[in-house]
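User: I'm new to structure prediction. If I give you an amino acid sequence, what do you actually give back? Let's try with this one:
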Amino acid sequence: MSSTTPFNWRGLVLPLALLATWWLVTSAGWVNTKLIVPPANVWRTALSTMADPLFWEGVGASIARDLSGFAVGAVGGILLGALLGVSRLADRIIGPTFHTVRQISLFAWLPLLSSWLGYGELSKLVFISLSTLYPVALGTFEGVRSVSRAHAEVARVLRFSRLQVLTRLILPAASPQIATGLTLGLVYAWVATIGSEFLLANWGNGLGNIVIKGRAAFNVELIVFGMLAIGLVGVFFNRLAQRLEARALVWRGPAR
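Assistant: Good question. You get back a string of structure tokens that encode the predicted 3D arrangement of the chain. For your 256 residues, that looks like this:
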């Protein structure tokens, strides 16, 4: 039996209805077409932009930035969450500070990061890593804490070493919550990637810069195309994360 979820064609109904409404109101002249531009104009802008190698360089830069920050934040989140989940002492010492700091809006860190690290890639990498770290650490922490005492007693009876307890008991038991945290972390990382390109736009290239260029030139077609491109890449990452999560947890069997 295939585990692949069939494509939901019903999900296209609303986008197609919005596209038809967009075409209708612009074709009938019911709106100011300098602000709400016709779909055909956006399509022409999309074709000319995608023909420019700089566009694909920007896409590559954004994706590389996203994956680099995600990797750093995911590793840090798993280590921190496992530490807080395994050690009561670490939870008492580090936990209150961690749970307090994570209440600060992520975008509130950008002025401080830019003051410390400037507007270069390092600031963006740190910001994306922070955005990833929180959901991954929380997912790992909750997964580790969900390990039952009965299973811990079995490991003690079997005289598992600390490494065996970690690799054979804690991580397998916590893997569903860790996978969920990683999925959320990938979504947050993409949001942080585009946000950092918007707000730290003085240096570098990326998809966010396309929207900024459109705004500077009051090119609404370019703005709309940039937004759509950002959304499509985000959807791709979300679907990829879901597929990887399903494959990683296939050993658990179907949910009951």
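You can read the tokens as a compact description of the fold. Here is one thing that stands out. The chain has a mean pLDDT of 85.
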